[in-house]
Amino acid sequence: MKYIVSIIQPDRLEDVLKKLDEKEIHLVTVSNVLGRGRQKGISEVYRSHKEVGSLLKKIKLEIAVNEDYVNKTIEAVTLGARTGQIGDGKIFVLDLQDCIRIRTGEKGSMAIG
Questions:
Q1: Beta carbons within 8 Å of 85's beta carbon, 6+ residues apart
Q2: Any bridge partners for residue 59, and if so which?
Q3: Collapsing DSSP states into helix, strand and coil, what is residue 94?
Q4: 19 vs 26, 44, 56, 108, CA distance in Å?
Q5: 75 contacts 6 by C-beta, under 8 angstroms
Q6: What is the mean pLDDT of residues 56-62?
Q7: SS3 of residue 18 by DSSP
Q8: Which candidate in 18, 43, 85, 96 could, as Cys together with 1 as Cys, close a disulfide (CB 3.0–4.6 Å)?
Q9: Chain-centroid distance, C-alpha 71
């Protein structure tokens, strides 16, 4: 089991969700987050004062999948989120030790769905 965390541009969310649906990956958690990457956010001038280090709005996707769906998930997120511009985002793949479905008590790969 793997836990896939992706940080993407907000305007790419619908495209990513569509690509995930096409690959039959429907279970996803979406959060609005703030962050900055190598570009260190946006520099803005406000009342003759340069504001640096601003945090950019991003979307965080969290997806728990069984091993069979890892590559499909990565491919779907990559295809849906890629614009070719700086700031397209990142995908992190983590080992998932366990998963428990609260309603039934199922554990492991059966609980993921």
A1: none
A2: 8, 32
A3: strand
A4: 10, 35, 24, 25
A5: no
A6: 94
A7: helix
A8: 96
A9: 14
State the residue for tokens 């070719």: 84
**How many structural domains compose the chain?**
1
Average pLDDT of the residues in 32-39: 84
Mean pLDDT over each residue of the chain, to the nearest integer: 90
* CATH number of the domain encompassing residue 35: 3.30.70.120
pLDDT for residue 54 = 73
pLDDT tier, 76 (very low <50, low <70, confident <90, very high otherwise): very high
Q: Hey, how many other C-beta atoms are within 10 angstroms of the C-beta on 11?
A: 11
Would you say 111 and 99 are in contact if contact means Cβ atoms under 8 Å apart?
A: yes
> Strand runs (DSSP E) across 1-113, as ranges?
2-8, 29-35, 44-46, 49-51, 56-65, 89-95
Average pLDDT over residues 42-63: 72
Give residue 27's Cα distance to chain centre: 12
pTM above 0.90, yes or no: no
